[in-house]
User: Which sequence fits this backbone?
């Protein structure tokens, strides 16, 4: 009986992990298209040597990874103070009523928005890691083939 409960718990945990990683297919598609365009542009401008393929994959992977890490830091609240200050200044300059009474109210609203959009940074990091790994493998193949 306990084995059945443990296996059900294990299945539930696996489903949760898959949902965290694959929860926003549109973000995967959009970032894949952007990275594909970066790779295509780099290769068309530089040639089709395996070294250029390696560079193209690595550069697009770094772009995707950087986007993911910036999204992660924004999710963790790194930019909350700056955005609150910018909103207050902009509303003050244009004589509009303030949307938030104080910083705590602003943080509460941001937290409720973040609870709805959890893990939006994961697709960018996953695609970035895959592309960086592919770039590293191609660099290794280039080194093995041409530098012997």
Assistant:
């Amino acid at each position: 009986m306990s084995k059945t409960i443990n296996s059900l718990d294990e299945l539930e945990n696996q489903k949760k992990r898959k949902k965290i990683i694959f929860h926003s297919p549109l973000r995967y598609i959009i970032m894949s298209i952007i990275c594909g365009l970066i790779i295509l542009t780099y290769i068309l401008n530089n040639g089709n040597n395996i070294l250029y393929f390696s560079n193209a994959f690595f550069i697009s992977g770094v772009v995707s990874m950087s986007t993911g890490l910036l999204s992660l830091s924004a999710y963790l609240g790194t930019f909350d103070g700056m955005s609150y200050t910018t909103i207050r200044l902009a509303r003050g300059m244009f004589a509009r009523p303030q949307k938030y009474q104080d910083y705590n109210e602003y943080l509460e609203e941001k937290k409720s928005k973040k609870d709805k959009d959890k893990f939006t940074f994961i697709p960018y990091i996953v695609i970035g890691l895959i592309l960086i790994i592919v770039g590293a493998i191609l660099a290794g193949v280039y080194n093995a083939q041409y530098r012997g």
